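Ticket #4471: structure output looks truncated?

Reporter: J.K.
Steps to reproduce: submitted the chain below (169 residues) through the standard prediction queue, then opened the result file.
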Amino acid sequence: MGAPWMGASSLGTPVNAQSWADIGSYSSLLRRAGTQTLVAKDCPPGLFGAFHTGRNVLLLCSNNLENDPAHVWTVLAHESAHVMQHCQQGPLLPDHLIGSALAQIAKQSLSSFQELRLYHQSQRRDEIEARLVQGLPMAEVKALFRGFCGDRLRRLAPKSSAAAGLGDG
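Returned output as attached by the reporter:
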């Protein structure tokens, strides 16, 4: 079984969220799967976001992010890849596609590719997958999330609408 999303992005397709509504829509999808999205104003310099597996919380660092939905989307997509890895309880890509993933990342962003060297070997694969996801169009990221975390979406769907609306905005 392969990964149908590998390299599926076509040139010229908008990669980033175009509005804050897009960001809110995707954050709502994450919430429906049980992942809370928090915004912090006091992150260490250089930290744009993080995913805490134990708490199932995705963090966006507003003090380090540009006030631009495209930039915020890149970080949100990256961190949501870690949520997908959590749902999958392991890697998103089969081993034989990691080399192709690295080539795709280098093509999308040389700086993103070079940043991989900053991570410990034990984190590198997760970061390769996250950087690959952050370069995909929003529709593909949403489809991947539904694919990898769909069980959580179905399992958590019966929640009351009052509880589901908390934190939207």
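Triage note (M.O.): checked the attachment and the full token line is present. The longest strand covers residues 36-40.
Status: closed, working as intended.
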